[in-house]
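Figure 6 in text form: structure in, sequence out.
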């Protein structure tokens, strides 16, 4: 029996679970509308206006099981982010009298809009649909709530409508909206202001407009609906239909807050906040001036006789536009305005949001290039290089360096390394670089941008404790590169892999420090030099005093490569020229020309130092110069790929830019039919390629966003290795040198590119050794070679081929040959005559006419022997012995005389080692030329 009860319970649970709907996924058809239900045009004194709305949107429902409630929310950005309705959950369908003191959970409903909230004390909640999922979430919910609920603080009534998963067309809702959603303006006292408000029904139910009036805390209201401007009252708006209401107001000397309320047959009233800031005329500033920079301008003025209440504002009014760019307090007389020229700026004095003086206008020219100079005291000044608009402008920064994008400065000091937008000069300290706690060790100096956007800098006020560091601008990747005691000055190389420092030990010299491991390399030709800079193109500019005993006086400037090569002197005007710095294009140099200990003017010249001209009129103790110029040149991309490769390929992706360091350029590649670009480096390594034709495309982007054209290259993948065969040489060589030949075929299609030949040999007394690979025999392009073989040795050769794709074939089968021992290498008994003639191998022979005369060679290791001899009609015979055994008898007879004849003896069953004896058998002539040995 208990088992049956359990079965029934389980079956019931299963049935309920199967019937329960799934969680509802929100759709555009779902909607929630929350807002005030305005029945009076009088505003309470506690709140000046109603919130704009009602707010409506696609809702989200969140169930709280602990409180047995569901909260439905929609986005309400104007009022703090969201509007919500909270009610009982699960809920029962039907009509409920709203009162949080009532006995039923459905009687409690709460509304919020941002920080405002209320709980209904009276009214009606109509629940049309309330379905839960198996997990208790909302599957469907359709409700209307209206009644007494002071949502805005100004009104006593509010309403909400929710439709989630409700497909009943009779329960669609109307959603009134206004454009603009609120009216906010300002005008001088006595000005009449008129505004039109467009009303739209964005809901699915038609909405009938019943009234359009102004709600105000004062009577009469300041805003009024113009008599002929109400085109909405009495009109029924279908979905998407619009009408307009016009309001008007006469400005006074104070601010008015009121509302346009448009009522209709929906539970919520459309409220449009109206704000007018009236003000008395504001006196403008005077003597407006603008000193332009490349990405900002310094605007200065004389204040009005009565300082403004709020301060000053600068607008861009170019071509009739009006965009706020900068603000300044009432006490200010200048402000930095971000942005590049040419443009027209307007300055106003402001007593309120709208209470502004008439515009005071100034035209600001474009500055595309400037030289920025710093002094030891932290002052930084920029000098425009355009002769048509020269300008000197003070910056708020100290010892700056410009990044590759030309939009960010980096500066350093005791407080840390700081990154500052060029346009605003509002700096942010890089985390981890603060040096105030222990300045001798940690204080950062010489901060410089690396081409990849990271920063290199020195640390330590103490010369002996100085270190080199790198860090990203967000503080990540902070690491020490090297200890660099007694070093100062810092400049990055354009590839970003190294920096240049000055070592002040001894006479001083410049050194390159590799950032990957801190290794240091001295730069030749820089001993005893004073200062340096490094150009975007990787050229080192070295300054030297002509008279090293004096701290002032003429200096020379020499340009060289970073390895010290290619030195050439710049033709700058004779004088004390310092901080010689190339512009990013390498076509101009800037320099500080000193006329006293602490007095210098800024100059520019052509890349070779000629055509120098003065930029600045003022003098300063300028130590470091930086160019700030627009990005003028686009990068170029290049691809180097062989015509054929194996399944693995290494492609060279080139990148160049006339005014950007190569290390700052971003390469992207794509292969074959790919449509997505992927980052790639200078070498694109590919593996697993299929056989056939492939293509690669590349493009390059510089830090300023300029992009190269797309370049493409194709090549063929050949995965088949070529096959080679060595042509068999004669078994015994009787002439020198020996010519080896071979053949090869390549089925892959790329063709044979080169050959490798190897050999091994056995001497007369030893077996074969290891293979040798003479360097001259590797990567041969010919199909033959001449080889000089050692006498008495047997050689075995093999060859392999390499195709144009890089596939290397297997070694071929061996082909062997022997070079005989010369007859002089055999010991002769009495009765032998030694002779010489070019007719014989090695130009020698041994001759006898004595019976029993012998030639011998001890220690011979061989499997088979051959005698090289002369045959003739009067020649005799010889017996040949090896290791105590007779191998055979050789007849030297032939009808005609023949030299260099190879006479073979039988193959021995095993390799033997011992003395070889050649013995004459008669008094007939025997002429021996050599002994060939095979193994």
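Output sequence:
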């Amino acid at each position: 029996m208990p088992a049956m009860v359990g079965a029934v319970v389980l079956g019931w649970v299963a049935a309920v679970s199967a019937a329960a709907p799934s969680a509802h996924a929100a759709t555009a058809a779902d909607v929630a509308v929350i807002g005030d239900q305005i029945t009076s045009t009088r505003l309470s004194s506690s709140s000046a206006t109603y919130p704009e709305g009602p707010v409506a949107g696609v809702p989200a429902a969140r169930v709280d099981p602990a409180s047995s409630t569901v909260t439905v929310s929609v986005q309400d950005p104007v009022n703090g982010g969201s509007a919500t309705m909270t009610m009982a959950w699960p809920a029962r369908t039907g009509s409920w009298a709203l009162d949080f003191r009532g006995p039923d959970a459905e009687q409690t409903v709460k509304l919020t809009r941002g920080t405002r909230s209320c709980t209904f004390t009276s009214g009606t909640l109509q629940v049309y649909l309330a379905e839960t999922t198996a997990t208790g979430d909302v599957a469907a919910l359709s409700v209307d709530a209206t009644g007494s609920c002071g949502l805005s603080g100004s009104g006593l009534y509010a309403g909400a409508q929710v439709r989630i998963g409700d497909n009943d067309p009779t329960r669609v809702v109307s959603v009134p909206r206004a454009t603009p959603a609120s009216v906010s303006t300002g005008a001088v006292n006595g000005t009449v202001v008129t505004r039109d408000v467009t009303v739209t029904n964005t809901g699915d139910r038609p909405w009938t407009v019943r009234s359009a009036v102004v709600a105000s805390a004062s009577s009469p209201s300041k805003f009024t609906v113009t008599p002929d401007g109400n085109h909405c009252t009495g009109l029924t708006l279908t979905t998407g239909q619009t009408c307009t209401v016009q309001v008007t107001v006469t400005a006074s000397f104070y601010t008015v807050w009121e509302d346009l309320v448009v009522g209709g047959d929906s539970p919520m009233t459309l409220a449009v906040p109206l704000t007018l800031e009236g003000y008395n005329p504001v006196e403008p500033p005077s003597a407006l001036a603008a000193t332009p920079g490349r990405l900002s301008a310094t605007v200065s003025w004389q204040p009005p006789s009565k300082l403004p209440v709020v301060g000053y504002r600068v607008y861009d009014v170019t071509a009739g536009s009006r965009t706020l760019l900068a603000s300044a307090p009432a006490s200010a007389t200048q402000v930095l305005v971000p942005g590049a020229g040419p443009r027209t700026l307007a300055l106003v004095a402001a007593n309120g949001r709208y209470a502004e003086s008439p515009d005071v206008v100034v035209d600001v020219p474009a500055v595309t290039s400037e030289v920025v100079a710093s002094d030891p005291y932290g002052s930084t000044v920029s000098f425009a290089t355009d002769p048509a608009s020269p300008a000197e402008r003070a910056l708020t920064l100290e010892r700056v360096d410009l990044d590759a994008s030309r939009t960010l400065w980096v500066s350093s000091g005791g407080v840390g390394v700081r990154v500052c937008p060029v346009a605003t000069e509002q700096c942010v300290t890089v985390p981890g670089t603060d040096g105030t706690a222990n300045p001798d060790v940690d204080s950062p100096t010489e901060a410089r941008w690396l081409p990849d956007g990271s920063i290199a800098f020195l640390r330590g006020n103490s010369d002996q404790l100085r270190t080199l560091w790198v860090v990203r601008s967000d503080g990540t990747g902070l690491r020490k590169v090297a200890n660099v005691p007694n070093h100062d000055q810092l400049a990055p190389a354009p590839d970003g892999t190294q920096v240049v420092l000055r070592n002040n030990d001894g006479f001083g010299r410049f050194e390159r420090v590799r950032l990957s491991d801190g290794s240091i390399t001295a730069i030749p030709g820089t001993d005893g030099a004073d200062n340096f800079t490094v150009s975007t193109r990787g050229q080192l500019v070295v300054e030297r005093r002509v008279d090293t005993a004096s701290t002032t006086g003429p200096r020379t400037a020499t340009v060289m490569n970073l390895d010290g090569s290619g030195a050439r002197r710049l033709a700058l005007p004779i004088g004390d020229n310092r901080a010689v710095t190339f512009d990013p294009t390498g076509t101009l140099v800037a320099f500080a020309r000193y006329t006293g200990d602490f007095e210098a003017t800024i100059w520019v010249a052509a890349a070779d130092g000629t055509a120098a001209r003065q930029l600045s009129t003022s003098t300063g103790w300028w130590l470091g110069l930086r160019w700030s110029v627009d990005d003028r040149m686009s990068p170029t991309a290049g691809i180097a790929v062989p015509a054929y490769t194996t399944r693995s390929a290494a492609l060279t992706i080139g990148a160049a830019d006339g005014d950007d360091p190569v290390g700052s350029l971003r390469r992207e590649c794509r292969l074959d039919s790919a449509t997505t670009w992927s980052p790639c480096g200078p070498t694109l390594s590919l593996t697993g390629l299929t056989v056939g034709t492939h293509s690669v495309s590349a493009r390059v982007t510089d830090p300023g966003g300029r992009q190269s054209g797309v370049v493409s290259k194709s090549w063929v993948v050949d995965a088949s290795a070529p096959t080679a065969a060595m042509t068999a040489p004669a078994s015994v060589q009787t002439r020198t040198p020996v010519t080896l030949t071979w053949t090869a075929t390549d089925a892959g299609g790329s063709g044979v590119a080169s050959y490798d030949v190897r050999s091994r040999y056995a001497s007369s007394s030893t077996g074969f050794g290891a293979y040798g690979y003479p360097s001259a025999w590797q990567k041969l392009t010919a199909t033959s070679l001449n080889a000089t073989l050692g006498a008495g040795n047997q050689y075995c050769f093999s060859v392999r081929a390499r195709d144009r794709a890089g596939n290397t074939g297997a070694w071929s089968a061996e082909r062997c040959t022997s070079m005989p021992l010369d007859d002089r290498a055999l010991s002769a008994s009495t009765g032998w005559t030694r002779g010489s003639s070019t007719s014989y191998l090695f130009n020698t022979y041994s001759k006898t006419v004595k019976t029993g005369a012998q030639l011998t060679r001890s220690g011979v290791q061989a499997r088979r022997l051959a005698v090289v001899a002369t045959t003739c009609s009067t020649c005799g015979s010889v017996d040949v012995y090896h290791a105590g055994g007779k191998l055979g008898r050789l007849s030297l007879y032939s009808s005609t005389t023949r030299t260099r004849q190879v006479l073979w003896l039988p193959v021995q069953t095993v390799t033997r080692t011992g003395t070889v004896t050649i013995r004459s058998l008669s008094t007939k002539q025997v002429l021996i030329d050599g002994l060939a040995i095979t193994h």
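Caption detail: The longest helix spans residues 2-19.
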